[in-house]
Specification:
Mean pLDDT: 81
Low-confidence stretches: none
Shape: elongated
Order of helices and strands: HHHHH
Largest sheet: none
Number of helices: 5
Distance between the termini: 87 Å
Length: 97
């Protein structure tokens, strides 16, 4: 048997429940309202992230990541593939241009 089950078996005096709600209600009515402050961190976060990405891209490990992305996308391999055939020989091309 857990604590919740034990507490649920204890009979509650209805008058005690009413007194408890009265105390809680009075305390709630007397409380000081806290000012709700809205903090906007985006203007600070964006320049920090941009600076971190820029710094990382100029460091040797960051440059390696940039080079790997370029190789994966195909920027490094695009130029040779456009000007060289995969096998030796001649090519007949016909087109409007």
């Amino acid at each position: 048997m857990n604590v919740k089950e034990v507490l649920e078996q204890i009979p509650v005096d209805p008058e005690a429940e009413e007194r408890a709600w009265a105390v809680v209600g009075a305390a709630y009515a007397r409380r000081e309202r806290a000012a709700h402050v809205v903090r906007r961190r985006w203007p600070l976060v964006v320049p920090v992230v941009v600076a971190a990405v820029a710094a990382a891209s100029f460091s040797p490990p960051g440059r390696a990541v940039v080079d790997a992305v370029r190789r994966t996308i195909g920027v490094e391999h695009a130029a040779p593939a456009l000007f060289r055939l995969p096998a030796p020989g001649r090519l007949l091309v016909s087109g409007a241009g």
